Amino acid sequence: MSRPVLRTELCDILNIEYPIMLAGMGVWGMGTPPELVAAVSEAGGCGVLGGSALSPEEVRRRIRRVRQLTDKPFGVDLLLPASLAAASATRSGVREELRRDHPAHVAFMHELLERFDLPPAPVENDIVNSDVYAEAQIQVVLEEEVPIFAAGLGDPARVIPRARKQGMLVIGLAGTVRNAERNRDAGVDIVVCQGTEGGGHTGPIATLPLVAQAVDAVAPVPVVAAGGIVGGRGIAAALTLGAIGVWVGTAFLVSEECALPNVVKDDILAGAASDFRVSQAWTGKTLRAKRNQVTDAWAQSGLEPLPSPHQRVLMEDFLSAAQLADRWDLYMNAAGQGAGSLTERRPAADIMADLVAGTVQALSETPRRVQFAP
Ligand SMILES: Cc1cc2nc3c(=O)[nH]c(=O)nc-3n(C[C@H](O)[C@H](O)[C@H](O)COP(=O)(O)O)c2cc1C
Description:
This protein has 374 residues and is α/β, with parallel strands linked by helices.
């Protein structure tokens, strides 16, 4: 059977068959393993490795593994810290600052451990997502000549001159129109605009107004839409808004290749759209994840979120204990509102095939359902 056709400008820019990108999803290295990145690229989309939580050596290892699995284009997504200068560059240093300056937060975390009977299991490595660390990760991505670089947070300007030299495309993520404009001014090739519906760190604006406004604001720089897109109807809507493609996270979290434990995938599958809420409990920034007893306790605590990396270091020690005790119900199960329509774990190739077929169907049906004339 012949493959469906679905092409936009994004296919030409990235040299891919379908205008669908796998979102870079860091989640402690479990979100986008090389097998998932390669599966999406092999299926005609563009796989993106979420490298933010990985050591520079591990980023390199995984890039090489992707290359063993596919010769198709793929990208790496990193979180570039914007304002960490005031914090210590080591985990032990940040912990020290937490004890000294934020005893109520430390007490909150210890109370959680006691309440759920979790033996403490502090994270062992001494790394935080500091400037030095991000620079080492960037260096690896450049050395390995990955074709596409995505900057999840922070200012991509520092990467652009070096990327240009070797023909690497740079993508910037934005959650507001203002941020999309900043990315344009920095010189990115593509802006991914993620609406609040999306999983993980997310801004306040919904995908529909964000994408429509950003498309106008940053033209002629192309926009890729993200947030709440889990099927062909969402992709058709994004293309109608003027986006040249989509960046899809949550829908691939429940793929068989995703390295999250099945119990987490099933927890995501069991959720209704309204179960995926924004909380600052996990990282200090607004992050959409499945609501659980930890986010409820945080909401009741009345504590103010600490800036990154303090809140993150604090809660990573809790997450490490929860993980060791196999209490995935207490984990940071980041996912977006689109999860409400997902029903089963499936191979990434099947998810890709459905996204493409669903878009073709949605686009074909529209003229049958809507009468229009100029
Ligand atoms: C589990 C998870 C982890 C994420 N981690 C990152 C990350 O490390 N870097 C990044 O740029 N975006 C990250 N995101 C956001 C995604 O790149 C993407 O914008 C979002 O998933 C799109 O919305 P959707 O989940 O509704 O598809 C993450 C999202 C999820 C669900």
